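Sequence design from tokenized structure. All designs in this work follow the same two-part layout: the structure record, then the generated sequence. An example of the structure record is given first.
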């Protein structure tokens, strides 16, 4: 790639989470002078050991290199400077229990910037936000500084687990509140990525980010709706989808599967909230969200019915859930919005007698899980041993590679394998102690019992 000469200006990244830390390390490695600001002491403490607090392939190596050579520095407070700077805001914008966006972190950052911003500084908002946030919420706060500054919205669109390989190649959307802001932000990103897409304004850039995630959620929801239809028919969803698109150029549905993570679980709600004052409702986006959320409750209900039917609800059962991170490909240890833990909580509600739940993940460590209040097993074999039910929850290759024969041997007694990713749908012969059910073929599997 042919990047322009890196900026000499200091780039200040505010919020060193999944997005901010990865971007900071990437930019520092290009030769930029990056200062990271992070309020969480635990994140700073981890960085002092030159490591990230989360797993992202290649990130620890990059941190070690850039912290050692001084191109990436970090501290907990924003401070004044005599020079012009570029600020990138990457703090979290989660939703609350009522599915409303929490903008408190971006507002707090904007208020902190008022005291330190200089004439000519460029502020880039990168956190996912409600429509109009850049111009109507953040810009007015920054104007209290009395300084002339530039401001643009430039969304983060990388995939967790592949962020470092995507940052330099994904097209970067850039939309400023005015032409000069767009121009300056585009010039900045042209030093980072090979393609910069300048759009009309910050609102267009904000909407592009929300629409990107909404359409991904909708595609998965269509597949999950097919799966739910097939659950009540004697038809396999995987076959309907795979055979239906084979050599047929007008269908490209993904296979059904759980949808989660810190972005898809919230971004359609942020889109809907953006339109409230226009009295518009994004019907497809919200229905898709419901379909993807309901899937987990349907699985919990199916399992509760299953064990009731087998008269096993009168004794405590052992349920093992394998693959707890919100996805297995690309691998991550991110537990935010993870379907597996939502399923765990639903199962606890519908099957209160299932007293023993065992959790295992190929990437998430026991200590990381403990921080989130979950008890994990170290060993896969120890997790599965003597289980009544094993749920294959995410699509990590180490879980996909497990054969049903291996599982049956580890399990010892009779076991029900519930595969949320329908990996073994084509298997016709099962070990005698194992029953197999998958999302999208509940009825078909019943026939095989
Ligand atoms: N995770 C992803 O892959 C991804 C992808 C695209 C977009 N996004 C969006 O990017 C934003 C950030 O996501 P994330 O996953 O990195 O969130 P995160 O919660 O992992 O990181 C945010 C960090 O900001 C810190 N912070 C909060 N207030 C601060 C302040 N005043 N000063 C300094 N630090 C502060 C927090 O302590 C935290 O470490 C969100 O809006 C998210 O929706 C995330």
């Amino acid at each position: 790639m042919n990047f322009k000469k890196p900026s000499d200006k200091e780039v200040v990244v505010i919020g060193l989470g999944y997005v901010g830390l990865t971007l900071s390390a990437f930019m520092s490695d290009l030769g930029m002078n990056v200062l990271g600001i992070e309020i969480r002491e635990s994140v700073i403490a981890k960085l002092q050991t030159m490591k990230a607090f989360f797993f992202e392939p290649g990130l620890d190596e990059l941190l070690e290199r850039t912290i050692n050579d001084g191109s990436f520095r970090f501290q907990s407070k924003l401070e004044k400077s005599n020079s012009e700077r570029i600020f990138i805001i990457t703090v979290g914008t989660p939703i609350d229990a009522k599915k409303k966006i929490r903008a408190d972190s971006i507002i707090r950052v904007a208020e902190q910037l008022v005291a330190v911003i200089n004439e000519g500084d460029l502020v880039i908002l990168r956190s996912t936000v409600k429509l109009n946030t850049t111009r109507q919420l953040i810009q007015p706060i920054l104007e209290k500084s009395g300084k002339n500054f530039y401001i643009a919205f430039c969304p983060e669109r990388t995939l967790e687990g592949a962020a470092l390989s995507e940052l330099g190649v994904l097209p970067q959307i850039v939309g400023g509140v005015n032409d000069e802001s767009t121009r300056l932000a585009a010039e900045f990103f042209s030093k980072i990525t090979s393609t910069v897409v300048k759009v009309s304004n910050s609102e267009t850039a904000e909407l592009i980010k929300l629409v990107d995630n909404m359409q991904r959620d909708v595609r998965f929801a269509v597949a999950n709706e097919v799966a739910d239809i097939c659950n009540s028919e004697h038809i396999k969803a995987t076959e309907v989808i795979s055979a239906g698109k084979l050599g047929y150029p007008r269908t490209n549905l993904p296979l059904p599967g759980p949808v989660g993570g810190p972005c898809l679980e919230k971004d359609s709600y942020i889109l809907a909230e953006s339109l409230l004052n226009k009295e518009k409702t994004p019907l497809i986006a919200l229905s898709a969200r419901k379909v993807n959320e309901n899937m987990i409750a349907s699985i919990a209900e199916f399992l509760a019915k299953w064990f009731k039917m087998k008269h096993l609800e009168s004794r405590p059962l052992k349920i093992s859930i394998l693959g707890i991170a919100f996805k297995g490909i690309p691998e991550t240890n991110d537990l935010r919005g993870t379907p597996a833990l939502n399923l765990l909580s639903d199962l606890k509600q519908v099957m209160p007698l299932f007293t023993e739940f065992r959790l295992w993940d190929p990437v998430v460590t026991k200590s990381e899980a403990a921080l989130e209040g979950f008890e994990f097993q170290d060993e896969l074999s120890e997790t599965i041993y003597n289980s009544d039910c094993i749920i294959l929850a995410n699509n990590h290759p180490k879980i996909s590679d497990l054969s049903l024969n291996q599982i049956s041997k580890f399990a010892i007694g009779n076991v029900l394998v519930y595969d949320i990713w329908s990996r073994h749908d084509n298997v016709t012969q099962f070990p005698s102690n194992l029953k197999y059910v998958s999302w999208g073929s509940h009825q078909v599997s019943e026939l095989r019992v």
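The chain is about 40% helix and 15% strand. We note this feature because it recurs in several other targets discussed in the main text.
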